[in-house]
Write a structure and sequence with these properties.
homodimer, about 220 residues, NADH Oxidase, 2 domains, four-stranded antiparallel β-sheet
Chain lengths: ~220, ~220
């Protein structure tokens, strides 16, 4: 797959089939992930792949509690607004994200694979998120959908404890990435145009290019 | 370019030519970057591209001070060890990274382009580093080398102030990415094998695959 196709179409893909992911694909995903950069190339990362139904059964209820907490705290105003005015363009997009997240919560145990990423001594996240994003891009190349969530952070150390992460080694859980073969279609992620969020030389300086229309399109 | 070639060969490329980067390539890089995920798709990011020699002249001395601080504080033990035992495999690798970072410090003003990434309300880094890494991967596809540094953090708000970032808007500078056409060659980044840092279902559980040899190779 072309790099631009992967970069443009690896959007959050939460609705997936329960079909298992072959070990060869998992190996390719993880082998690509560890090529990512880390501060001083220290590679202070660790990954846990979860495909055991018994472990998923422990994580599922926690995930649903975390999503409940997300809606009732961090995104409460947003949820209220979507309920009050469901038809504005922004609220439509939010409503769609919420539906898809609720799908993930209801169907958590049906995901064939979860990737958890951990980092040591990485305050910024700059030494773990490139690797996690590489894993998601490699998964895309294998036809596997994924999404990135840090919502388990609501539960403190409960998930690391379930996964047996040694408490004395100071691993920080950066993210959970549920994976699976998509039920939906791949498409280019809609975003605020790049030139509107890019400044040149000084804050407010014009980017110098126009990206009103995406510069890559999937013509197939 | 194939996605795997980009994922495997986008390694820190600090020695680059001063040749300018065409605006079309910059547009492609940034348009790809904003397709990356962010928490709740809030896209709370902003980017500053620096190509003005006057701005670079302000940043260069700060960068050199930051690198001095890096060597004398965070990596002091490592620097001492490399000087004491330069010939162990690990210290050779570190010596090589240090040389390349020192090259970057001496030649800071000769980089044709810097990308700075900023995020709002992103404690984990999970909503900015995927975009920054996407920019680096897209740059790779355009034949442009890059590296990722957060060393300017040593200088607190000095760099955001130089770039005119509004202090009241709570933007956190996540990273600086110097870019340019490489003086050296692209190659697959050597890493601790993925199966050694991947656990299955429980910490310590065998990954279930073997990645002793990289699963992708540049045969050209």
């Amino acid at each position: 797959m072309d790099i631009y196709e992967a970069l443009y179409t690896t959007r959050a893909m939460r609705r997936v089939k329960p079909d298992p992911i072959p070990m060869e694909a998992q190996a390719k995903i993880m082998d690509a992930a560890v090529r990512a950069p880390s501060g001083g190339n220290t590679q202070n990362w660790a990954f846990v792949l979860v495909d055991d139904p018994a472990v998923k059964a422990q994580l599922g209820p926690l995930y649903r509690e975390c999503i409940e907490m997300l809606w009732s705290t961090f995104y409460k105003d947003r949820v209220d607004e979507v309920e009050a005015n469901p038809d504005t363009p922004e609220n439509k997009q939010w409503g769609s994200i919420m539906k898809s997240v609720d799908w993930a919560a209801r169907n958590f145990e049906s995901y064939p694979l979860f990737l958890f990423g951990f980092a040591q001594g990485d305050g910024s996240g700059g030494s773990i998120f490139p690797a996690i994003w590489s894993a998601m891009l490699a998964a895309r190349a294998e036809g596997i959908g994924s999404s990135l969530t840090s919502v388990f952070a609501f539960k403190g150390d409960e998930v690391p404890n379930i996964l047996g992460v040694p408490a004395e080694e100071d691993w920080r859980m950066a993210a959970c990435v549920p994976m699976g073969y998509p039920l939906g279609k791949w498409g280019v992620a809609k975003r605020q145009p790049a030139h509107e969020v890019t400044h040149r030389n000084q804050w407010g300086g014009a980017a110098g290019f126009d990206t009103s229309a995406p510069l890559w399109a999937n013509d197939r």
